[in-house]
Amino acid sequence: MQKILIIGATSAIATACARQWAVRGAALYLIGRDPGRLAALADDLRVRGAGAVDTGTLDVDDLAGHEAALAAARQALGGIDIALLAHGTLPDAAACDRDAALAMAHFATNGGSTIALMHRLAGLLEAQGDGTLAVISSVAGDRGRASNAIYGAAKAAVSAYASALRQRLGRSGVDVLTIKPGFVDTPMTAAFAKGALWARPEAVAAGIVRAVERRRAVVYLPWFWRPVMTAIKALPEFVFRRLKF
Question: In the chain, is it the N or the C terminus that has fewer CB atoms within a 10 Å radius of its CB?
Answer without folding.
Answer: C
